[in-house]
Amino acid sequence: MRATNSSSVTRSSSSNLSCRKLNKKRKIPNISHIPILDLTSDEDLRDQQIHQQLISDYLDHGDQTFVCTMGHAQLWTYEALKGNTSGKKTSYSMCCGNGKVELPELKEAPTNYQNLFRNVDPKGKNFMKNIRRFNSITQNEGCTSTSHSLDIEIISFLKVMLDSINELVKCYRMARDCFDENPHIDLKLRLIGRRKQDGRTYNLPTASEVAALIVGDIGDAIDNRDIIVTTKSGSLQRINELHPAYLGLQYPLLFPYGDDGYRVDIPHRDVDHSTNTKRRFCTMREFFAYRIQDRVNVFSLILNSRRLFQQFLVDAYTMIETERLYYIRNQFLADTTLNPEDRPDILSRLFKITLDSLIKDLKKKRLLGSVQAVVYTVEFQKRGLPHAHICLFMHSDYKLPTVEHIDRVISAEIPNKDDDPELYSLVSEFMMHGPCGSDNPKCPCMSENKCSKNFPKPFLENTSVDSNGYPIYRRRNDGSFIEKSGVKLDNRSVVLYHKTLLKRYQAHVNVEWCNQAASIKYLFKYINKGPDRATVEVSQNNNGGDNDDAPVDEIKDYYDCRYLSACEASWRIYGFDVHYRYPSVVRLPFHLPRK
Where is the composition biased (Low complexity) (predicted)? Predict the structure, then answer.
C-alpha cells in the first residue's frame, strides 16, 4: 500500500522470485513504534467474512472444455465468458477474431512423422532433443559438420519424406538437376510471392504456383516479394517475411507439405471485393493467433515441437512487429509428454486468466479493502516466465494507519505447521528467499558477495517504521525454520505475503505496504522501464588452416539488443495488455473555461 497509501502486489508465475529491492538501504536505528489502537468496526468484520469466503478454495481453472464453433479452438471457461454469440454460433476474439478469421486446416502429417513428435521411442526422443538442429539441416539442404552427432537415419527419413510431399523442396531439386545438366548457364529460381487462390480455403500451392526457372535476365515482371535464388550472384537477398513461402522455408519440419504462411491478401470471413468495411483482410497477428490454438482431434506439429515452437513464437512476433513498423513508415499438458516450458502459449494464457482474476478480487471483492485506482505492468525477464508489478491506491479508510492493520494484512513469518499445514506448505514452496550468501554464493540475487535483496532481514519483535518512513515488518526469533537445499531458513528469509492471496492463487505473491514517494517512484520505474535488453558479443577468428602460425585476429562487435522470450511473444501475439491502469486517465491538451 502507498503514501497515498497504496498497496504494492507482485504476482509472479515463478516460484523463486524474491521481493523487490528498495533504493535506499534501510537501517534499524531510530525506530519508533506505531501505537496499537483498537479500530475494529463492523466494516472490518464484513471484510474478514469476505476473506473467509475467498480462502475456502484454491482457484483452479480446470481444462480447456469450451470449443469455438467458428475456429474450433479449445478454450478455458474464463476465456469462453468473452464470447460473441451470433445465432447458434459462438466465437472468440483470441482465436478467430470473433469469427472474422478463417484459415484452411494444415494437412495432417504422415503418421510415422507424427510419431517422432510424440516422443514414443529412442529415435523420437533424439529427434525432439535436437529438433532445432534437424530443422536447420533440412532447411539448408543437407548434412553439415554439426550433424555427425545426430541420427543419420532420421536425416535420411526427413529428406525422403520432404522430397516426396513438399513442393518447395521439389522446386529446389528441379533447379539443382537443371544446373547439374547445364552448369554454364545463368540460372535463377523464382519463388513466386503472389497467389491466385483464396487464402481462407487454400494453402497448398502446386509447383507451377510456387516457382519458376528463369534463364538469363530476370526482367521487369518480378514482384517485390518474390524470392530469387541465383547461381552466379555473389550478393545476398533478404527474404521478405510477407512471402507466403517464408514459414515453409524457415520451418520445413513444422510445415512438411510446404504450406503457405501469412499472406497480405487473406480476406476476413464473408468478405469480398464489394464489401464496404474498414478492415477487409486478416492481420499477421490474427493469422498467428489462429495457428497456435489447440483444436479438438487435431495433432499440431507446431504446438508439439517444444524448443522449435519457442523459436517459432519469437520469429512470429518479430514478424508482426516488423510488419507494424513497416506500415508506420510507409497471436495442458497432462496427457502429453510436454513440459510446461514447452508450451509458452499456455503459460501466457493461464497467467492472463489468473491475473485478471486477481485484479477482480482486489477491485470488486475488495480483498485488501476499497481500491480507488490500479496500475500494473507485465514483465518477461530472461527466465522467460511472466510476472506482474501491481500498485493499488487505497481509499482513505483503508490506508492501514496502525501496526495492527499492517500485521493483519501482511506477514513476514513462517506459519505454524500444526495450526495451518496448507499455509506452511505454500510459504515453504513460494515465499522463502534463498538460500543465498555464503550458503549459496552463486544464487542469482548475489552481487558483490552479498544479497542484492538484503536477505536475511533482521529479527524484530514488533512491526515498526524507520526514520525514512519505511515499514520494518515483524520477524520474531521463535525457532521456526524451513529447510531448503540443506540450509535452514528462518523468519529472516520470508518474503512478505498475504495469507488469503497465497492460499487462493498458490504462487509467488509478494505484498508490501508503501507510504513514501520514493517507494512509489520505484514501482513506477518497473511499470515504465521498457523491455528487457541483452548485450551480445559477436567474435570472428582469422585462424584458417593455411596460416596456422599467424596471430589470431579477433574482431568483436557488441550489440545492444531487445530480449524477447517465447512467453512474451505469445503474450503479444494474443494481444494481451502489457500495461493496465484503472481508471483510465488521459491528460487533455485543453481545459474548460474558468477551470
Answer: 1-18
> What backbone phi and psi angles, to 5 degrees, belong to 513?
-95, 130
What is the separation of C-alpha 568 from the centre of its chain, rounded to a whole number of angstroms?
3
Residue 451: per-residue pLDDT: 93
Dihedral pair phi/psi, residue 320, rounded to 5°: -60, -45
CA gyration radius, the chain: 29
Taking the C-alpha atoms of residue 79 and residue 274, their distance in angstroms, rounded to an integer, is 34
Please compute the mean of the pLDDT values over residues 378-388 and round it to a whole number. 79
Q: Model pTM?
A: 0.65
CA distance 47 to 53: 10
Q: How would you class 87 by CB atoms within 10 Å of its CB: exposed for 0-12, middle for 13-18, buried for 19 or more?
A: exposed
**483 - beta bridge partners?**
488
Q: Over the stretch 488-500, which tens digit does the pLDDT of each residue have?
A: 999 999 999 999 9
pLDDT > 70? residue 504: yes
Question: For residue 407, what are the CA distances in angstroms to 148, 223, 474?
Answer: 62, 69, 8
Q: Which three cell numbers stand for residue 128?
A: 525432439
Instruction: Please tell me the predicted confidence (pLDDT) of residue 255.
Output: 92
pLDDT score, position 239: 62
pLDDT exceeds 60 at position 400 = yes
pLDDT higher at 335 or 146: 335
d(CA 214, CA 189): 6
What's the confidence (pLDDT) of residue 502? 92
- 172 vs 178: CA distance, rounded Å: 10
- For residue 289 the three cell numbers come to 493467433
Q: Which three cell numbers stand for residue 4?
A: 497515498
Task: Pull the grid cell for residue 33.
Answer: 513504534
Task: Answer whether 84's CB lies under 8 Å from 95's CB.
Answer: no
State how far the Cα of 443 lies from the Cα of 465, in Å rounded to an integer: 30
Find the helix packing angle between 167-181 and 152-165, rounded to 10°. 90
Q: Report residue 419 as a C-alpha cell.
A: 495450526
Three-class SS of residue 437?
helix
- CA end-to-end distance (rounded Å), the chain: 32
> Whole-angstrom Cα distance, residue 318 to residue 19?
31
Cα–Cα separations (whole angstroms), residue 268 to 96, 105, 164, 327: 10, 16, 33, 19
Q: Would you place residue 415 in the very low, low, confident or very high pLDDT band (cuts 50, 70, 90)?
A: very high
